[in-house]
Amino acid sequence: MKLGLVLFICIIWFETALAKPQLVVNYAPSDNAPYVFLGPRGAESGIIVELMDELARRADVDVSYQQVARKRLEYSLQNGKIHVVVTSNPKWLAEPDKVDWALPIFDEKNVIVIRRDSPNIIKVEDLIGLTLGTVLGYAYPEIDNELTNGLVVRSDSLEVMHNLTRLKAGRLDAVVTSDIQGAWLIKESGYQNDLVFASFLVSEQKITPAISKLSPVPLEQVNQILQSMLDDGFIAKLLQKYSD
């Protein structure tokens, strides 16, 4: 009996010793396709998943994906509940110095989508008086004055796709989204004849993953792997996959 217990304990210890560290990656409710494609068990594919699956393979760790609301994001990074937020930037966090920052991995633009038959939006003043589809909990510093003062009416949704559907139906005047996400959703939904990008560019930023200081993969190693993925074209091919 005692021998059996000892063997059981040894097996558990051996399996624990062999277990790989687990890297926990966040995806937000607003991380629609092509950043994240959801299945019955959560995040299954998309830019974030395929990027981090490859990083985990090169780092020889396991990876899991956890949805965390934007309002709990910083706290979850700081306490190590999540280790990586891929689609981030220091200017989007209230306390950016409390997490580590990986090297920038690609450029993203925030753009305005309008109906094809609507007047073009060329400058920020053209937004005044319009109802703009926005993402719940997301800040838009470049047009914050207009949104805060009610010059532009903010209409939140959890998903960009919901905003685009409302725009097509005439319930919104415009939608703000990223160029990567907007282009993919318009194409895949068959809205190319109805919706277009306006001329006004809200912002342009470097997507810079936020890394928890409690991450099992230290910042230096994350950066080494990301640089190798940039150098060998993995990231460029991944982005191209979802822009064709």
Overview in brief:
The protein is α/β, with parallel strands linked by helices and 244 residues long.
Order of helices and strands: HEEEHEHEEEEHEHEHEEHH
Main beta sheet: strand number and arrangement?
5 strands, mixed
Number of DSSP helical runs: 8
> Can you tell me the residue ranges where pLDDT is under 50 for at least 5 consecutive residues?
10-17
Number of strands: 12
Name the beta content range.
25-35%
Keywords: Signal
Pfam family, one: SBP_bac_3
Protein name: Transporter substrate-binding domain-containing protein
InterPro entries: Solute-binding_3/MltF_N
What does this structure look like?
The protein has a five-stranded mixed beta sheet with strand order 4-1-5-12-6, covered by helices on one side. With 244 residues, the protein is an alpha/beta fold. The longest helix has 17 residues, at 2-18. The protein is globular, with a radius of gyration of 21 Å. It is 34% helix and 26% strand. The protein is built from eight helices and twelve strands.
